[in-house]
Amino acid sequence: MKSRSxxxxxxxxxxxxxxxxxxxxxxxxxxxxxxxxxxxxxGNVSEQKRAYNAAESALREAERRLxxxxxxxxxxxxxxxxxxxxxSANALAATVENLCILSDSKDLDTQAKVQAWxxxxxxxxxxxxxENSVGYRGFDGQSRYRLAPRWVVTAMKGGxxxxxxxxxxxxxxxxxRVTAIAxxxxxxxxxxxxxxxxxxxx
Length: 202
Prior knowledge:
The chain has helices at 6-69, 73-78, 85-91, 111-122, 164-168; strands at residues 101-102, 134-135, 150-155, 172-182, 191-201. It is α+β, with helices and mostly antiparallel strands. It has one domain. Strands 1, 2, 3, 4 and 5 form a five-stranded mixed beta sheet that branches. Strand 4 (172-182) and strand 5 (191-201) form a beta hairpin. The N and C termini lie far apart (110 Å).
């Protein structure tokens, strides 16, 4: 049996080495693309979570401020809501800072109304009260956001429930819808949250 000379085997080894190198390069490129994709997905999830947390904080702060107003003299004049957040914030400033209660004619009770409100609110860059929303500055009023979350309270249609005499005296059960919106620093993922608050005034 004849064996091949080492000179003829040198080309086969080179070819096998090049194929192996090509396979390793493909594995490395695939791994890098997968890692990049995972980083993007992780960043998107993190961004969405920050937006959700900011919206929920704004929602809870609006609920807290509304509850603070209950039983005060300002509640009587503000319980039905106002035409704008600027008017509301100024009228209720003695009791609660930056509380916006809009009248039931501006209630955000449909998805179309919420989307229209959100579009306007997202265009407001400052955290000051605007026509239809108030900027959230944190529980302590000192927090700063790149894009301030916005919120609004609207009186729900139907007015207060209770005996007619009690209603005329400002007592009864009042229902409000609280709506908050926030987006994270990338401004790609707006999050809208709503809750309904029931206030019993005796």
